Amino acid sequence: MPDHYEIDNVDLKILSILQHNAKKPYTEVAKQAFVSAGTIHVRMNKLEKLGVVKGASLDLNLSKLGYSVGAFLGVYLTKSSLYDKVADQLKNIPEITSIHYTTGNYSMFVRVFAKSTDHLKDILHNKVQNVAGIERTETFIILEETLSRSIVLDE
Question: 8: alpha, beta or left, given left = phi > 0 and alpha = psi -120 to 50?
Fold first, then answer.
């Protein structure tokens, strides 16, 4: 894939359409974008190879699946140079949904979901705080999520 590939208005139109409904068939996307279905396939493959599109996923309502407690963890590392090693270990904890390297008070900010406060306590004490390189954590319980979205692309 050439490094100089320029994302054009057709690519942006395709992404915008699929952002609103990722399940929309490529034939319908093609009609809306005024191109052929084959063009949609080719463009999406290019965008995936470039890393612009990272795949498709389901947006689950975790509380309906029993994960009623969400939290952010501010993580203090013993040394910031341990970030990659710590992140690799945290990726193995299935209840963790995102890991961020940050500036400010914390070295990392982590999002975690649990079935109960007891489950969250177990995750913290028996999983997260056993990761080598973590000095300590601060937990912020999520009371409500009002907004979770991606950047809306201009067409």
Answer: beta
**What is the C-alpha separation between 108 and 31, in angstroms, rounded?**
44
Cα separation, 121 vs 129, whole angstroms: 10
Q: pTM of this prediction?
A: 0.79
First to last CA, the chain: 24
d(CA 55, CA 143): 30
DSSP character at residue 7:
P
Which own/partner pairs from 87-92 qualify as long-range (CB within 8 Å, at least 24 positions apart)?
Answer: 89/131, 89/132, 89/133, 90/128, 90/131
For residue 123 the two structure tokens come to 């995750």
DSSP structure string for 30-79: HHHHTS-HHHHHHHHHHHHHTTS---------GGGGT--EEEEEEEEES-
In the predicted structure, residue 123 carries a pLDDT above the cut 60: yes
Closest CA to 142 of 78, 68, 71, 80: 71
The letter for the amino acid at 139 is T
For 46-92, what is each residue's pLDDT tens digit? Answer: 999 998 998 777 788 899 999 999 999 999 999 999 999 999 999 99
